Amino acid sequence: MENYSTYFSSSSSTPPTSSLTLSMADSHAYNEFQGIKSNGFLGLMSEMGGVPAVSNIDVPQSRSFMVGSETDVNSGKKKGEKKIRKPRYAFQTRSQVDILDDGYRWRKYGQKAVKNNKFPRSYYRCTHQGCNVKKQVQRLTKDEGIVVTTYEGMHSHPIEKSTDNFEHILSQMQIYTS
DNA sequence: CGACTTTGACCTGCGC
DNA sequence: GCGCAGGTCAAAGTCG
Predict the structure, then answer these.
(1) A60 or A87: which carries more pLDDT confidence?
(2) Where are the stretches annotated Disordered (predicted)?
(3) Is the whole model's pTM more than 0.85, yes or no?
(4) Is the Cβ atom of A75 within 7 Å of strand B at any atom?
(5) Which of A8, A74, A120, A158 is the most buried (most CB within 10 A)?
(6) Nucleotide with smallest C1' distance to residue A138 CA
(7) Terminal C-alpha separation, chain A
(8) A132 sits within 7 Å of strand C by its CB
(9) Per-residue pLDDT reduced to its tens digit, A68-107
(10) Interior CA angle at A101 toward A157 and A68, to 5°?
(11) CATH homologous superfamily of domain A88-175?
């Protein structure tokens, strides 16, 4: 059935062609991985929020991960208000399905065709009240088996349902990254 | 009937 | 200023 293998990849740069050439210079995020299960996946993200700078991880077997691509969230809204940029976390997952069940409930609010990509990008928002987390899901043109998921923001609530699937993903991640 | 998806329109930022 | 691309809104449709 599902056949996930987890990639982590840079999000904001050009689509990864073959492999990313980032080194494990800073292993902050790396270490944080070990704490994933306690808080759920976005708990991990929140842990990573403590890492100020961009830290990229890549390991030879094509897993890569990027933290810290930042994005405007409040731009264009209230004038005079300082632009607040939420960190974005993108990662690639090799999967037959676009939607990875990470245990949170998401409502789709948009879909756009993306330039240089024959697959559309889908936009989701967390349906939990007061939770402003968004994610984008996109399949790579160059490798249809790879789904790029970009999370934006951090969940302020616990995971909503048990996620055997995701546990599986996480376990793979930990195998790969340790 | 509520929650969610679909989809075209609209808004904004950016490069030329 | 214009056009393009990315991101969001919201009305209508679908589903359980």
Answers:
(1) A87
(2) 1-20
(3) no
(4) yes
(5) A8
(6) C6
(7) 26
(8) no
(9) 445 444 433 333 344 455 677 777 777 666 666 667 888 9
(10) 65
(11) WRKY domain (2.20.25.80)
